[in-house]
From TrEMBL:
<dbReference type="GO" id="GO:0003952">
    <property type="term" value="F:NAD+ synthase (glutamine-hydrolyzing) activity"/>
</dbReference>
<dbReference type="Pfam" id="PF00795">
    <property type="entry name" value="CN_hydrolase"/>
</dbReference>
<dbReference type="InterPro" id="IPR003010">
    <property type="entry name" value="C-N_Hydrolase"/>
</dbReference>
<keyword id="KW-0520">NAD</keyword>
<keyword id="KW-0547">Nucleotide-binding</keyword>
<dbReference type="InterPro" id="IPR036526">
    <property type="entry name" value="C-N_Hydrolase_sf"/>
</dbReference>
<dbReference type="Pfam" id="PF02540">
    <property type="entry name" value="NAD_synthase"/>
</dbReference>
<dbReference type="GO" id="GO:0009435">
    <property type="term" value="P:NAD+ biosynthetic process"/>
</dbReference>
<keyword id="KW-0067">ATP-binding</keyword>
<dbReference type="InterPro" id="IPR022310">
    <property type="entry name" value="NAD/GMP_synthase"/>
</dbReference>
<keyword id="KW-0436">Ligase</keyword>
<comment type="pathway">
    <text>Cofactor biosynthesis; NAD(+) biosynthesis; NAD(+) from deamido-NAD(+) (L-Gln route): step 1/1.</text>
</comment>
<dbReference type="GO" id="GO:0004359">
    <property type="term" value="F:glutaminase activity"/>
</dbReference>
<dbReference type="InterPro" id="IPR014729">
    <property type="entry name" value="Rossmann-like_a/b/a_fold"/>
</dbReference>
<dbReference type="GO" id="GO:0005737">
    <property type="term" value="C:cytoplasm"/>
</dbReference>
<dbReference type="GO" id="GO:0005524">
    <property type="term" value="F:ATP binding"/>
</dbReference>
<feature type="domain" description="CN hydrolase">
    <location>
        <begin position="4"/>
        <end position="292"/>
    </location>
</feature>
Length: 722
């Protein structure tokens, strides 16, 4: 029985970089042809890049997208259906669309029906959804192509709409292959996640064998497995092939697209892009070789009765050489089948690609390792800077940032044979002979320890040991004289100088930021080192070392960072050096602004583990609650032993009430700090990023009079019933 290839592509696109985006798309098409695919599925909005945001308002963006389509048409790729993503302007409305090409002609344009508006998504700001629930708008209409496309294809009008499927009739003598046409349907990203998913209708009502989904799904800790489970459900009930194509990397913003394009057959993944050996590659193509009978047999034996006989559809005839034959016969359309005859399967000279499922199950620590490295690398190479600088304190946060940069260097060493990676590394390291990851790290990463009289010897030793281990450039600077000179010049009142005041602590912190930027020498990106838990309650100085160019850990919890550093110790560090990492893991978190004895958790009044849970209850995977709701939920879960092990210090409603009040008091009092947080990689469901994810006022009544009063009443009720 004849098999044919289906290709999904993972592309690392860059918003508004049309030239490079076009080259990556063409490269992926060539790879798909090389591996014998009859269809190539690309990511959502791959031509422009997904993250153009308000640049989608600019008509230039749409024009340049059509110009890229024209360049692809000029390449005259044969006998492969090319599925491209771009914005399309129709009747003064902008649609998020798929453009389907075959043999340098456009088959149809498929607009997105369900727009993503959750999390970091804001699609309804720029795009119009196609159709509506009342079906007042026809599902398929005619679209007049721009003149620059008509001049190449000879086509003036093409179908535009959601209810279009393709029927492929192959130019083959194989009786099994042409027993029935191979039917293909399409959906776009959010439509898979929606309860009324397009693929349900396509598989069950229209009888599609294959549904293609083009996505721009970003990475978030522990989201990968949920995404895979949802893609598995697409075909586990109805049978069929599902081709899911997703972007990867940083296309210019705070998110990192997750990649992991996958092809599933009857509910089981059979191949996937992306592995630890290639995730830095800008173009990744995975091909699965499908036998149409595998779908038919699964449906027959599972007693799945496809209801395609109930559907009524107009048929457009498309010859693989001549194009559409009966366009003039059709005036209006509700459902359309485009019948494609004469498509040839490439059987000569193509290479069979091995199946890859190496990243089917990924631990949270591995996710941090891979996606933070990828985000940092994309930002570094696309900004044309020479490297990074990290202000090291010897604590877990700053050390984890330095470790992440070193991990990036290990991946660069492994993938140095890739020409584009090799050129980028040469830009950073010069023509120096690169022997290993520490050689790269020596050039890429500079660390500085900025001390005052309050800094501890142990923290300095931890910083030194780590930089020796990873090979980073290290600078130790004691700026105590500068700090004291400024105090002498600027102190207004001598009152309270027997202890370190908050103003003095802030002065130390802000001087560190100034010194770090000076040491960057203008050609290194300054990395911030604050975690999500500290940002939530404002345990940072405004415009200290939390102010930088980028923050790779800005929405990662202290708990997850500890787990990551422990993972690094077990996977990357030789036995004789593991004690250096243990010293970091065992160190008590301290800002060391008043001395070595200072303790972060004492200052905050809440432990880091408690902060992580409170953050996820405020907004995240544990709910979305204000002060009173958080207290009620947490006490219920503690009483039912659901969170008792995670919150061992909270043994009474009074303690919980104090901690919840403390959390919201700090959060509201310091909310203004979150408006100026350094751009951080979005990693968590409870990120406090004010600019994209967590939109809230920044002036609160931090007394929370009504809400805290409700908590007090609830505490009394609980105690009365005990």
């Amino acid at each position: 029985m004849e098999k044919f290839g289906i290709a999904v592509c993972t592309l690392n696109q860059f918003s508004l970089d049309f030239q490079s985006n076009c080259e990556r798309i063409k490269s992926s098409i060539r790879d798909a042809i090389k591996y014998g695919a009859i269809i190539r599925v690309g990511p959502e909005l791959e031509i422009t890049g997904y993250g153009c945001e308000d640049a989608f308002f600019e008509v230039d963006t749409v024009l340049h997208a059509w110009q890229v389509v024209a360049e692809i048409i000029k390449c005259d790729f044969k006998h492969i259906i090319i599925d491209l993503g771009m914005p399309v302007l129709k009747d003064s409305s902008l649609y998020n669309c798929r453009i389907l090409l075959l043999n340098s002609k456009i088959l149809f344009i498929r607009p997105k029906m369900r727009l993503a508006n959750d999390g970091n998504y804001r699609e309804s700001r720029w795009f119009t959804p196609w159709g509506n629930s009342n079906n007042f708008e026809r599902n398929v209409v005619w679209f007049q192509l721009p003149a620059l496309i008509t001049s190449l294809t000879g086509q003036q009008f093409v179908p535009f709409g959601s209810d279009v499927v393709l029927d492929l009739v192959f130019n083959e003598k194989n009786e099994f292959l042409n027993l029935t046409p191979f039917r293909i349907g399409f959906e776009v990203c959010e439509e898979m996640w929606n309860p009324e998913s397009a693929h349900i209708k396509l598989f069950y009502e229209k009888g599609c064998h294959l549904v293609c989904n083009s996505s721009a799904s970003y990475w978030e800790l522990r989201k990968l497995n949920r995404c895979l489970k949802i893609t598995q459900t697409t075909t586990s009930k109805s049978g069929g092939v599902y081709a899911y194509s997703n972007s990867i990397g940083c296309d210019g913003g705070r998110i990192c697209f997750a990649g992991r394009s996958v092809i599933l057959l009857n509910g089981e993944p059979i191949t996937m892009t992306m592995s630890k050996d290639n995730f830095l590659n800008e173009v990744q193509v995975a091909v699965a070789y499908i036998n149409q009978s595998d779908v038919t047999s699964y449906r027959q034996q599972s007693n799945i009765k496809v209801q395609s006989h109930r559907a009524t559809a107009s048929t457009l005839l498309f010859d693989s050489i001549a194009g559409f034959k009966n366009v003039n016969d059709l005036k209006s359309m509700n459902d359309v089948i485009i019948n494609i005859k004469g498509l040839e399967i490439n059987k000569k000279g193509f290479e069979l690609q091995k199946s890859n499922l190496s990243m089917i199950n990924t631990r949270a620590e591995e996710e941090i390792l891979i996606y933070v490295s990828l985000w940092l690398w994309d930002y570094l190479r696309r900004s044309s800077m020479k490297g990074f600088i990290v202000p090291l304190s010897g604590g877990i946060d700053s050390c984890s940032v330095a470790i992440l940069v070193y991990c990036l260097c290990t991946f660069l060493e492994q993938q140095i044979s890739n020409l584009s990676i090799c050129k980028a590394v040469e830009h950073i390291c010069g023509q120096t002979q690169i022997k290993n990851a520490t050689d790269i790290c020596k050039h890429m990463l500079r660390c500085c320890y900025l001390a005052t009289k309050y800094s501890g010897k142990d923290s300095l030793e931890r910083a030194k040991n780590l930089t020796r281990l990873i090979g980073a450039d290290f600078r130790e600077i004691n700026f105590n004289n500068v700090y004291e000179e400024i105090q002498t010049l600027a102190t207004i009142s001598k009152k309270g100088l027997d202890k370190v005041t908050l103003s003095q602590q802030n002065l130390q912190a802000r001087l560190r930021m100034v010194l770090t930027y000076y040491l960057s020498e203008g050609d290194r990106l300054v990395l911030a080192t604050g975690n999500v838990d500290e940002a939530l309650v404002g345990y940072l100085t405004k415009y200290d070392c939390s102010s930088a160019d980028l923050n790779p850990i800005g929405s990662i919890s202290k708990h997850d960072l500890r787990e990551f550093v422990h993972y690094f110790k077990t996977q990357f560090v030789e036995e004789k050096h593991k004690r250096f990492i243990d010293d970091i893991l065992n160190a008590v978190p301290s800002a060391e602004l008043t001395g070595e004895e200072q303790r972060d958790e004492d200052d905050i009044g809440i432990t880091y583990d408690e902060l992580s849970i409170f953050g996820r209850v405020r907004r995240g995977d544990l709910g979305c609650y204000g002060p009173y709701g958080m207290f009620c939920k947490l006490w219920e879960d503690i009483s039912n032993n659901l969170l008792r092990s995670s919150l061992p210090n909270i043994t009474s409603p009074d303690i919980l009430a104090f901690k919840v009040k403390r959390f919201f008091t700090l959060h509201s009092r310091n909310r203004h700090k979150q408006t100026v947080l350094t751009p951080a990689l979005h990693s968590e469901t409870y990120s406090p990023d004010d600019n994209r994810f967590d939109h809230r006022q920044f002036l609160f009544n931090s007394q929370w009079t009504w809400q805290f009063g409700q908590i007090d009443e609830e505490v009394e009720k609980i105690k009365a019933n005990q």
